[in-house]
Amino acid sequence: MSRKPVHLAVYDTLADWETGHATAYLARGGYEIRTVGPSGASGVSGPSRSSGASRAEPVVSIGGLRVQPDLALAGVRPEDSALLILPGADLWDTSDDLAPFARKAREFLDAGTPVAAICGATAGLAREGLLDDRDHTSAVSFYLAATGYGGAERYVEADAVTDRGLITAGPTEPVAFAREILGLLGVYEGEVLEAWYRLFHDSDAQAHAVLEKARTRA
């Protein structure tokens, strides 16, 4: 069955470690991962691989990895996507450069397409007002409170939270973040999803047998 791709936002100073579990197992589950870079001054005109949208210039992660985005943010439409993933980055807190990604998240959620944000991206969504009426989490509550947002009463002390199509997590919880994503998109469910989490979060060797059994049944 054909699936819409998952779009992974990439930008300078993005936190390398926060989305790897999610993207690896989304890809194993049959989802194409398409990287999305900034539009505007950094975008260059020209066809993308499949959509005809403009391409974006390379970005460099906080770990020094150089990433060539598949397309620019302006070319991403909610109806063409299964999910938008927003990783953390220093730029979320040091400039307004990434505000267009928060606005794109609003566009996705308004269209009923889910969004997953981790670390600094949660602060970007808070500034955009997207956490005011949804349960959510982040690094710590006072980190989001510093944005002046109106959703402090909806903050949840949890590894990761999903509410009405929006997944949030703190920077130390990439596995919990991935668990919410994999469950939301149906890559794993029930005991298999929990086994996947126990294997990668808790190093539970017994969980591997559950995953292998599920794999052989597939």
Radius of gyration, in angstroms, nearest whole number: 17 Å
**SS elements, strand count:** 11
Strand content: 15-25%
Please describe the biggest sheet, giving its number of strands, its sense, and whether it closes into a barrel. Answer: 7 strands, mixed
What integer is the average pLDDT? Answer: 92
Strand order of the largest sheet: 7-2-1-8-9-11-10
Structural class: alpha/beta
Distance between the termini: 14 Å
How many helix segments? 8
Q: What level of helicity do the residues show?
A: 25-40%
Task: Tell me the series of helices and strands, N- to C-terminal.
Answer: EHEEEEEEEHHEHHEEHHH
Spans with pLDDT under 50 lasting ≥5 residues? 41-53
What general form does the structure show? globular
Domain DJ-1/PfpI: 6-182
Protein name: DJ-1/PfpI family protein
InterPro entries: Class_I_gatase-like, DJ-1/PfpI
Name the features.
DJ-1/PfpI; 7-stranded mixed beta sheet; alpha/beta; 218 residues; two-stranded antiparallel sheet; Class_I_gatase-like; globular; 16% strand
